[in-house]
Design a protein that fits this description.
Two copies of one chain form a homodimer. Helices cover about 40% and strands about 15% of the residues of chain A. By secondary structure, chain A is α/β, with parallel strands linked by helices. A six-stranded parallel β-sheet of chain A has the order 2-1-3-4-5-11, sandwiched between helices. Chains A and B meet through helix 4, helix 5, strand 2, helix 6 and helix 10 of A and helix 4, helix 5, strand 2, helix 6 and helix 10 of B. Strand 2 of chain A pairs antiparallel with strand 2 of chain B. Chain A binds a DNA duplex through helix 1, helix 2 and helix 4.
Chain lengths: ~350, ~350
DNA sequence: ACTGGTTCCGTAAACGTTTACGATGCTATA
DNA sequence: TATAGCATCGTAAACGTTTACGGAACCAGT
């Protein structure tokens, strides 16, 4: 004998009453409710997930889909573990559980999603690393599965989303660079089809235009969003004909590899080139200290969870119903890596002048 | 109409036949099987997880339990994402799915495990960060849930495990240090009750004894296993009365913070102190290059999954049944950080001699 | 024509819950 | 006393699958 029946037999009452007692239904006496709760705790009873889900049509599980393997761009991540923690604290308050749905590097993300959602495995979803055009959004919207995206997409089905504020980052960074006299400002963009790359370049382009600076495609450096990418980027940067005097790194890990490459070449951030990057626990240990955009990823997780719950009618009392689409602010924190000043008006340093006039 | 019934009605056959066709049962004609599979694909049918699990008593889901939040010791993790990927590739071959069970920083890990396992949520489990005494092992063994531990524990219920080979690490590192003349060798150990700390210190102690060196408790430095911990450790190290000339860092992230702290103090790894650490994508960008223990975490994930499946009688054909308990080898890879030589026999450098004779 | 065997398929029970419904006993009121 | 209302509980159906069982149809051999 197992499950709720064991409990019922032990207490000599019906399984219906046990269930009502456990679920806080009103039509059960306080006396029996007490006995049931006591016995349940004593016998370590936990309702079977499948039985409950089958009957209720709801699983109380929220999935956070991420891709494993190191080819995803984001390697080395406090990122997800921290966001998870924020999401979990909100969901836990409502008896919901968070699990990470791990799409292996050998499986197609769209097929994976279809499989796991088709199974009726989760009540809601958080998807991340949204692509410029993302079939997952269409799929989830078609099935009207509650979900929220961490990242915007051109695929717009009215879904809620949060996204890091790349507009703000590009704007503030370019403003600061220009104020220090920089005119050749590079930007690091992801090599994949992830949408944030496009958003970033657009924002960067508009920020340049606002200052009357030309857009030079050669200054958009593409690479995987990890340290190795940052290292490769330093090489690409130093090899450019007309070397930029400033660079904005929006990938979390990029700056670490970039520093390594620059310093190896004798180019000191903050002195020979201005760098602004993204903060993370690793970047805190860079030297010279990195001028960086910071934010609380745990709070982002909390916001994500609340916005997701707001799409459930059942939680309308706690979270005002509605779809939130919001840029997640990052604050620019001073470091040493952007302190370089560019002398006004064509007074280029000899080495740069040399580079600039090199034939072809 | 939903689920298998919709499919059956559409094809004008019974749901039993549909189920048999989909599950590859022999007693269904090839013709109808073809029709069923075609229709299933066309209509995007995926069997409901709850219904199937309820009937079969098995979920085809393996859980990998980790703790979120940054206070867990391991922050900054390629680690888990890489191991996940290895596990996933093996499980995927057998139609099993891996999900990460995220225990929030606000919930007790033991209670979390009881809850999620009691629900019958998973067929098997991988637990990590095993404690010196770990109630989770007793719980899982009592319920005879198939599981494997990433990490040893004094709680021995005959469970299979893999663990990083800290014996080998301590032995090789101490050997190398001693060969270069070091006699005061420090070791970094985690501050928590996680078992690897005890294993590590034991191994370190034995390795010292083998060379006739005394064990000095002051040389065992405890800290959280992250960069901040490494940074703090550099301070503690430099503040020691009799400063060690070598240090072994077994935490993945420690070396990064340690480097920062040492270099700030003008102490160059490999020149002024010998350092051996653990490799990871971030440590690849340290300068001077880190002499480090390396391994393939993806292969570790594969091994974990195979050893877990070996405990399922159902997979006896693929994986020889039996419980494997094995140390996962790490190979020592040369870098510059351990190149420092200590002059033989009491010929201490002035500064070190000064430190050693300082009163109290 | 009868038997036995094979192939294919439908029927129905079962998994562990939740919950609508009805039954029972009690109290209060007329 | 009869009735209505209430509190409490048991009964049974339902959720979507899988699978043991049996039945129908067919063929081969006697």
């Amino acid at each position: 004998m197992k499950g709720i029946r064991r409990l019922a037999d032990h207490l000599d009452i019906s399984i219906g009453t046990v269930s009502r007692a456990l679920n806080g239904r009103p039509d059960v006496s306080e006396e029996t409710r007490r006995r049931v709760l006591e016995a349940a705790a004593a016998m370590g009873y936990v309702p079977n997930q499948s039985g409950r889900a089958l009957r209720k049509g709801t699983t109380s599980i929220i999935g956070f889909m991420i891709e494993t393997g190191t080819n995803t761009g984001v390697d080395g991540d406090t990122f997800f573990l921290t966001v998870f923690d924020g999401v979990q604290t909100v969901l836990g308050r409502h008896g919901l559980d968070l699990v990470a749905l791990l799409c292996g590097s050998e499986e197609d993300p769209d097929a994976y999603l279809r499989r796991v959602v088709g199974r009726g495995f989760v009540d809601g979803l958080i998807i991340s690393a949204t692509q410029r055009h993302d079939p997952r959004i269409d799929f989830l919207a078609d099935r009207s599965i509650p979900f929220i995206a961490l990242g915007r997409s051109l695929t717009d089905r009215g879904q809620p989303w949060y996204d890091l504020d790349f507009e703000g980052m590009a704007e503030q960074a370019v403003d600061r660079f220009v104020a220090r006299g920089h005119r050749r400002i590079a930007v690091a963009a992801p090599a994949s089809e992830v949408n944030l790359g496009y958003v970033l370049i657009d924002s960067y382009r508009r920020a340049l235009a606002r200052h009357g600076l030309p857009f030079d495609p050669a200054l958009v450096l593409r690479s995987p969003q990890n340290q190795a990418g940052g290292y490769a980027m330093s090489r690409a940067l130093l090899a450019l004909e007309a070397r930029p005097t400033a660079i904005l790194m929006t990938g979390e890990m990029l700056s670490i590899g970039l520093y390594r490459g620059l310093i190896e070449a004798g180019v000191i951030p903050g002195r020979d080139i201005a760098v602004i990057g993204r903060d993370n626990p690793h970047a805190r240990f860079l030297s010279p200290t990195l001028t960086s955009f910071r934010t609380s990823l745990r709070d982002l997780g909390i916001a994500l969870a609340e916005a997701l719950l707001a799409t459930f009618p059942a939680y309308a009392e706690h979270y005002p119903v509605g779809t939130t689409r919001r840029l997640w602010p990052m604050t620019l924190t001073d470091g040493q890596s952007d302190l370089m000043q560019v002398p006004p008006q064509g007074a280029l340093s000899p080495s740069l002048a040399l580079k600039a006039t090199k034939p072809i």
